[in-house]
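Hey all, quick one. A colleague (J.T.) asked me to put the fe (ii) ion job into the tracker so the inputs and the structure tokens live in one place instead of scattered across chat threads. No bug as far as I know, just bookkeeping. Sequence used:
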Amino acid sequence: MVKAFMEFFDQTLEEKHVYDMNQILDSICYGTGYGMTTKEHRYWRDFLRMFVRPELHSPAKPADFRAILEEFVLQTREVFNELLRAVWESLELEESFMEDSLQLKTPNQVLVGNIFPPCPQPELVLGMPPHTDMCLLTLLIQSNAFNGLQAMHDGKWVLVDLVPPTLFIFTGDFLEIVSNGRYKTTLHRVIVSNEHTRISVGTSIAPPLEDVVIAPAPELLSSDSPAIFRGITFKEYTTLKRNHNSTDSTLDVLKL
Ligand SMILES: O=C(O)CCC(=O)C(=O)O
Ligand SMILES: [Fe+2]
């Protein structure tokens, strides 16, 4: 999968710009973070993001991209099923109830390929700003031995050792909501190298965009442990997250 993305990013700008973003929920979208600045940072990244479930969207080129993607989606589907089963068990939640109430037989699965080329002054940029993912779980791989991913742990940025073939799994915002705060979403960011190009491929699993209200599981609630988040659909949350400029977690906005 990493190699397929490498070939995609190696194409000419004209070929890649076919997938320029028109809307945030485009089924395939190519974008760039170069030169984009905030008060604090410049971002150093190109990406291609696509929805792969319930319907698989693939760029037409490179020619074998779709076949590789189909295989990757089949395999990650199994991994997500296993992991979610374990998560529901750890929360003592009925698996079939969770699958039905979150419509996880027809989930929304997104796949993103990111490329972070070498930067002459890596200390002045970030590959990606600190953020959390809009999903239940994210699964991530990287292309080479340069570790760029950092996760916030106990108030410090910790470098994640992702040397291939390591798979890194982390929690997203929806798991924090559904588990009523028992699982915490993972704040993470990306640093870049002055020598190596790094490619990362991340894929996230979530309930469908509409129709499902993502809310704390009723079985986890009692008078001693009331709901700490209000419910929201994935689509509404996308808008909320996009318009949320503060450095606080978007989840705070849902806190009751
Ligand atoms: O490149 C990475 O390791 C992380 C990418 C990421 O956080 C994302 O695509 O949301
Ligand atoms: Fe992320």
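Adding what we noticed when we looked at it: The mean pLDDT is 90. Residues 131, 133, 188 surround fe (ii) ion (ligand 2) (CB under 6 Å).
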